[in-house]
Design a protein that fits this description.
With 359 residues, this protein is α/β, with parallel strands linked by helices. 40% of the residues lie in helices and 16% in strands. The protein has two domains: 27-254, Type I PLP-dependent aspartate aminotransferase-like (Major domain) (Aspartate Aminotransferase, domain 2, 3-Layer(aba) Sandwich), CATH 3.40.640.10; 257-353, Aspartate Aminotransferase, domain 1. α1 (13-24) packs antiparallel against α8 (242-254), α2 packs parallel to α8 and α9 (256-278) runs parallel beside α11. The radius of gyration is 20 Å and the shape is globular.
Length: 359
Amino acid sequence: PLWVGEGDAPTPSFIADAAKASLDRGETFYTYQRGIPELREAIARYMTRVYAGPGREFSPERFFVTIGGMHALDIAARLTIGPGEEALIPSPAWPNFAGAVSLTGGRAVFVPLERGADRWRLDVERLANAVTPATRTIFVNTPANPTGFVATREEIEAVLALARRHGLWIVADEIYGRLTYEGERAPSFHDVMQPDDKILFVQTLSKNWAMTGWRIGWLEAPPALGETIENLVQFTTSGVPVFTQRAAIAAIEEGEAFLSRQIARMRQARDTVTQGLAATGRVRFATPQAAFYLFCAVDGEPDSRALAMRLIDEAGVGAAPGSAFGPGGEGYLRLCFARAPEEVAEATRRLAHWLTAPR
């Protein structure tokens, strides 16, 4: 199965051991809505190391621990969108963006990404043309699920300039920022923002450190929003379990070697599937620059759901239909290649055989 949005590696033992030790200490009670100080400090150190420029340092007061990235996204939507208001979402996109907007009573406005020969692109002029008096927020997922789109620094600067011009919020989902195949990380809004810019960052430990089932992430926001965020956490989840937060500290502070191995494994899998499918002559795609998805179109197969069902029955391969990812997704399939190399190779072999078989 290549339809899932997670890797197949279990959580490393050093992370699980930190949670077990916390449980053994009896850390099983209610805790801080903003997250335990030790984790917020660990996040600040991590962000300073990976994202801060010279002479810059992140304060723990900017970070709020959440039940996964989805909880952070939900809070960000509630903070920036109200009933009848609009959020711009480049599409194809993870469907939970639109879901979070709808829960606020707002409306998602999709702006199409463009697939080029080498990469997906965001047309910022088209994004600007979608702004109306009701627009409040721009959602930017970079690196992106499902396309593998990575915004360039110039595209990020242009989106930020647009947001400043209209007084809009940006919700930046950069959870795949470390899972890049060029350099230590992808370009980020952190590279160009000023302290007073209206940007909320969604993050999670799920992808980098194989912790999808742990449900822990964080929201980065201006400290002035702290009391409001604290209340939103209190009234929804009442905080994240301490033992889970101890595991998160271990991941952030001890997980670089694991992350490097995962990226190397994913790069190998990406090359396997892209080269194998390109050789059929029937598959069109931009090679993903980051994340672990291949978003591809098959010549002569415009109905992505029907194609996905046929591939299950006829090729024995599971893929997510592009129609699940909103406007611009129809006609594509999403393949998750964060799997064992032999599994990706076998899936590629089956797909290539199906694509080239006489009919």
